[in-house]
Amino acid sequence: MYFNSFDFLIFLPVTFLLYWFLDNRKIVFQNLLLLAASYIFYGWWDWRFLSLIALSTVVDYVVGLKIYESNSKKHKKRWLLCSVFFNLGLLAFFKYCNFFIDSWIELCSAIGIQNQEFTVMRIILPVGISFYTFQTMSYTIDVYREKLKPTKDLVAFAAFVSFFPQLVAGPIERATHLLPQFLNKRSVSQGSISLGCKLIIIGFFLKLVIADRAAIYVNAVYNNVELHDGLSFIFATVLFAFQIYGDFAGYSLIAIGTAKFFGFDLMTNFRRPYFAASIHEFWNRWHISLSTWFRDYLYIPLGGNRVGKFRWFFNLFITFLISGLWHGASWTFVLWGAINGAYLIIEVLLKAKSRKGILNIISTFILICFSWIFFRANTVSEAFCIVKKIVLQPGKLYIGMGDDIAAPFYAVLAIIVLIGFEIWREYIGSVKQITEKTEISRMLAYSLLIFLILYLGVFGDSQFIYFQF
Amino acid sequence: MSKYRVIIFKLIKLLIIIVIVDMVLGIAAEKLFYTQKTGKYARSTYAIDQTNAETLVFGSSHAHRHYVPDVLENELQTSAYNVGAEGQQLLYHLGLQKMILKRVTPKTIILNIDEDFLFNSTFAYDRLHDLYPYYGDHKDVLRPIFAVNNRFVDIKMFFKSYLFNSTIVHMTRYYVSPQIDYKGYRPLNGTVSEKEIDNYENDTQPKSNLIDSNLVNALKEFILNAKSNNIKLVFVTSPNLIKGNYKQNRSFSLINVIATEHNIPLLDFFNDPRFSDNHDFFHDPSHLNDKGAKYFTKLLAKEILAL
């Protein structure tokens, strides 16, 4: 079920009412309801893949307990490896199997060996597999590190793994933060519902007005590389920077807002990333739940920066390379990760990690946009072709055709509104100062935003970009 | 319990404010919508609210670009208006026909037939949003059409801002660059290039080969609406640059069967030798240029007179 579907518009209030109807009962009933709702939410796409979530839940639940019960470090480690291999195995099979087979065949043919033994299988990528496998892995790792006691409450654990607001595209929650919320009584307050509504409305504005409007132009240009010139690619890339931000930050806000309706607190995933004055700062503001996951479970275990300089750079680079691969089974994502890893190493070498100022913000944005070319391009060769056109063939700017001709202008208009809003948040004050003078002014402001969403938004059950990851 | 009462009270209050804001700004959006002078919405609004033409041409871009009302008027000694709309399919034509027939009864309706009209296509449903702005005044005829593939039509259409979604995008476009038409017809200029022909030949397979029963029903309803109003209905196929074996197309075969069953004449120009391979008449492989459109309309008028 998509957040931007009418099914969800029915699903959310029904689940909300049933959930708080059970407020006076034991907490297990609320958890059972959340579990059932989450399975319905996920099963709306493809019920067959519910078995994967259920399996992942059972495996990590059992492993968590086994790690805790084991007396020796060696046994604990064995159980942990079971969980890691199982979760990464799921990912490897469903997400990367064909990618590795394809790459192997291409490599063989490149060196002149015709390899007929491998055939590409028809594997459907289960929605959100990268998110829930990482979330459950964090649970077993934290139990192993004794940061968390494993739970014996299977229902609470299953509800934690499949919690529908963040199941398919994050934020990737840590068990230490989210699981205790399933084990303790939640409470509803006027403040949390009000905040939830606000976040959902802003999330939909980002998704439907900015991301989906920008996508019309971006897709027209990036899907027809041979037809367009460098200027169009520059414009499309800048629009894509806001498209992916609107899409993913929008999803995160809707997820966080939805969770508030049920008394849950999810972590912040984006903090105005395009105001970063360095790449280092950008990664502290962009997809925070994933970057901190990689920091805590990969970068630091590899030694982080408490090693020699060469090893430190290796750790940085490999972390971003894997982060790129996490985004998708394609060499474009690997290259995107490599570019970001290289940026960070160069920043360390130039001692430019803690830069400040508008010029640094702009240069960071340009560097990030350059890396987005590789993220968005359909193939690596197309990405290089785009870079070549930007440098050597500026040509003329494509402004759209047919019914889509005005789409980029409205996207730009909405982006200007977004930037103004974010400048206010970043440098001046909180949104409360604008909207929360009185209750009526607050409600009017959000009603106006809803009007803009309905009037200018793109409706067509479009997917969120991060679902494919 | 009082905590829940306060929350529900506030949510209701928010909903009421949303509805008021939607209504007030929605009315402004509606007023703005009806100020349009040119463009696709201006044409459909004119057809629905004003035209008294005795001959109306329905269909997709092939109708919009191929039928010259001035030529029809001269040849048939009648008044004519082209209500063809680019990219639109049968459900749209049915909706438009029903809205027009509520006000006026033309003598003749020409429906330009695309061979793939009855094949399953998401466009047939997705592009219906061009009729959303008329939902308020024509709910009786539009609701059944929108509900064919839309479970939440009543909730969606409740919001005025949703009815006029994205219309401002088009309005701006047509204000900046007015889209001149000649009684609904917009000529295409220039002649087809060899490159376009090559690209077209590689891309002529229909996207689907499945017949959509909703579209079959829409065609039958279109026919019945005309018959019950004593309107002379004529099906016409437009000429193509490249000859094709349309007899093997399941959709077109079924259209032929339906036309025969209902005694509707079908004037078939698909493989007309006067047009096939005649590059001078075509803007692209499937659309006539102004010269071709005028010639085609003249030939068609003669055939209609002969019926």
Structural class computed from helices and strand pairing of chain B: alpha/beta
Order of helices and strands of chain A: HHHHHHHHHHHHHHHHHH
Please count the beta strands of chain A (DSSP E, at least 2 residues each): 0
The major pleated sheet of chain B works out as: 5 strands, parallel
Radius of gyration of chain B: 21 Å
Distance between the termini of chain A: 16 Å
Q: Compute the number of structural domains of chain B.
A: 1
Counted up, domains of chain A total 2
Q: Whole-number average pLDDT of chain B?
A: 89
Could you list the spans of chain A in which at least 5 consecutive residues all have pLDDT below 50?
none
Radius of gyration of chain A: 23 Å
Protein name (chain B): DUF1574 domain-containing protein
Keywords (chain B): Membrane, Transmembrane, Transmembrane helix
InterPro entries (chain B): SGNH_hydro_sf
Transmembrane segments (chain B): 12-34
Looking at this protein, list some descriptive labels.
heterodimer; A: 469 residues; mainly alpha; 70% helix; globular; B: alpha/beta; two-stranded antiparallel ribbon; 14 helices; 8% strand
How would you describe what is shown here?
The complex is a heterodimer of chains A (469) and B (307). Chain A is mostly helical and 469 residues long. Chain A folds into two domains: 6-186, no CATH class; 191-277 and 355-456, no CATH class. Chain A is built from 18 helices and no strands. The longest helix of chain A is centred in the first third of the chain and has 38 residues, at 73-110. The radius of gyration of chain A is 23 Å and the shape is globular. Chain A starts with 5 loop residues before the first helix and ends in a 13-residue tail after the last helix. Chain B has one domain (38-147, 180-306): SGNH hydrolase (Rossmann fold, 3-Layer(aba) Sandwich), CATH 3.40.50.1110. Chain B is of the alpha/beta class and 307 residues long. In chain B, a hairpin with a 2-residue loop joins β6 (282-284) and β7. Classes of the chains: A mainly alpha (469), B alpha/beta (307). Chain A: It is found in: Cell membrane. Chain A: It is a multi-pass membrane protein. Chain A: The chain crosses the membrane at residues 6-22, 27-45, 51-68, 80-101, 121-141, 153-172, 192-210, 222-242, 248-267, 310-327, 333-350, 357-375, 405-424, 444-466.
